[in-house]
Amino acid sequence: MPELPEVTTTVNGLKKALKGTSFTDVWTDLAKNNPIKQFENTIKDKKFFIKFKKEITNAKVLSVERRAKNILINISNNKTILIHLKMTGHIIVGKYIYNKKENKWSPDKNERKELHDPYNRFIHAVFTLSNGKYMVFCDTRKFGKITLVDTPSMHQSTHLMDLGFEPLEDAFTYEKFIYQIQLKSNKYIKTVLMDQSIIAGIGNIYSDEMLWLSNIHPESKSKSIPNKNIQLLFSSMKEILNKGINFGGDSMSDYRNIDGARGNFQNHHNVYRKNNEKCSKKGCNGVIIRKVLDGRSAHFCDTHQKLFN
Q: Which of 64, 96, 125, 262 is positioned for an S-S bond with 14, CB 3.0–4.6 A?
């Protein structure tokens, strides 16, 4: 699932690509009659999609921002398009052609080669832009969410109201970090870091990397972790997330940026998906192992990553 660095990379790209544009139309093949409850009030609900299309048509893009793993496109009628990429979603901006007979979209043959990447062919929503380009939503598994909220009250909406602190904001101090992770002091620290109500935006990849860097076993309980390791975890969190942003996100799986290109963080993993490989920590002779914790995989070295219980 795209995490904070991938969503930030997408948002930064959209800020440039959507500047000065309006939405003139929108298409989807996801809209269904009588969708299951979790898809109500999203474009997967046919009745909602009709209203969604009416609301955004001819609306100007004012700004683009991120909250946790959500992309927020603020438009000129006091509405915000909220997009959650879920497991396999990503957004691309470019020139596309619609095949009416097959009800499918594909990149213009003269477009850059990245748009023809096989991971970019699962197009399920297309926003027509006033500059002649298209913002397309690709999603292999179709788990992604696209909806519309009122801009003035969006942070009180059900989509955003229960989210925790943003880890890279200056306001998220070390003292607040300690307080937040102690809210679930009997849970595995790996699970706590990925809890979106505690800290927003961290998932499987980056939690593994920051725990490896801070010498903490993922099954440690936060109440038992020594202060020096908590301090190291706090700094490691910021270091790893910023590194992920600097490398344009992680494309070990489906994620692509708005140009359809891969990020580069997957080439700088220390631990994620490196099970059975020798640990690269200086002076450590351990081997990376994989274990399922609370239904999610954890990759770690049980030699230098100490278990605190």
A: 64
Q: Are residues 8 and 132 in the same domain?
A: yes
- Between the alpha carbon of residue 38 and those of residues 53, 110, 134, 145, the distances in Å are 20, 39, 27, 10
Cβ atoms within 10 Å of 306's Cβ, excluding its own: 13
Residues 272 and 232 in one domain: yes
Q: What does the radius of gyration of the chain's CA atoms come to, in whole angstroms?
A: 21
Residue 269 has pLDDT above 90, yes or no: yes
Q: What is the mean pLDDT of residues 245-261?
A: 97
Give me the DSSP letters along 159-180. TTTT--B-TTSTTS-HHHHHHH
Same domain, 187 and 288: yes
pLDDT, position 50:
98
Regarding whether 124 and 16 lie in a shared domain, the answer is yes
Domain count, the chain: 2
Q: In what order do the strands lie in the sheet with 123-129?
A: 23-28, 123-129, 134-139, 89-94
User: Which 8-state DSSP code applies to residue 132?
Assistant: S
Here the CATH number for the domain that contains residue 210 is: 1.10.8.50
Whether residue 179 is predicted with pLDDT greater than 90 in this model: the reply is: yes
Q: Residue 147 has which token pair?
A: 């909806």
For residue 35, what pLDDT is reported?
A: 87
Q: 213 exposed, middle or buried (CB, 10 Å; 0-12, 13-18, 19+)?
A: buried
C-alpha 307 chain-centroid distance:
29
